[in-house]
TrEMBL record:
Keywords noted in UniProt: Acyltransferase, Transferase
Organism encoding this protein: Micromonospora taraxaci
Domain N-acetyltransferase: 35-192
Membrane-traversing stretches: none
Protein's name according to its UniProt entry: Ribosomal-protein-alanine N-acetyltransferase
GO MF assignments: protein-N-terminal-alanine acetyltransferase activity
Cellular component terms per the entry's GO annotation: cytoplasm
Length: 192
């Protein structure tokens, strides 16, 4: 708590949707689905993620999700992140298919954050993450109060590069974003 009262998290919590794509805060009940997706997508996701200590199955277990969920809630509550479960709306439910986060948010004069995401390979290429990216970035610039958002990708990750390229065609209200690759020798480009 600051001297000025409880911390404020602009633009959070919120649900965002466009067509069948829904972004919402994670729920404790997402543990089993999150774990199943992460474990089933090891070959798809592991090459692009940070190397964590421990086995993939342990780091992506329902028990690990409880820690991830707690950390995401803390980050969102403190205004340092906007973590979203990416879901596909189906006839009778919302099915978890991925994750997108506006994280490392810095407030005050800089008002910036970065975006990271992953998606279940079984729905990749269907426009889910480009739509989720457009929703999250538009929200970050609007109610989230940010001035700069970086989409961190590795240049050799072609599916992730396609997401950013597709995002440029689906975004409608985004006024400014910077796409930055995190690999050595990566480039930075303004996507206005």
């Amino acid at each position: 708590m600051s001297l000025f009262g409880p911390p404020r998290a602009p633009g959070w919590p919120v649900e965002l949707a466009d067509g069948p794509v829904l972004l919402r805060p994670y729920r404790r009940t997402d543990a089993a689905a999150w774990s199943e997706i992460r474990r089933a997508n090891r070959a798809w996701l592991a090459p692009w993620e940070s190397s964590l200590p421990g086995a993939w199955d342990d780091m992506n277990s329902p028990a690990a999700f409880r820690w991830v969920h707690r950390d995401q809630r803390r980050s969102a509550r403190e205004g340092e992140g906007m973590p979203f479960a990416v879901c596909l709306r189906e006839a009778d439910r919302d099915r978890l298919v991925g994750h997108i986060n506006v994280g490392s948010i810095v407030r005050r004069a800089l008002c910036s954050g970065y975006v990271g995401y992953w998606v279940d390979a079984r729905v990749a290429g269907r426009g889910v993450i480009p739509t989720a990216l457009a929703l999250a970035v538009d929200h970050a610039f609007g109610p989230g109060g940010l001035h700069r958002v970086e989409v961190n990708i590795r240049p050799e990750n072609r599916p992730s590069r396609r997401v950013v390229e597709s995002w440029a065609s689906v975004r409608s209200r985004t006024t400014c974003a910077t796409c930055t690759s995190t690999a050595l020798g990566g480039t930075t480009s303004d996507t206005r």
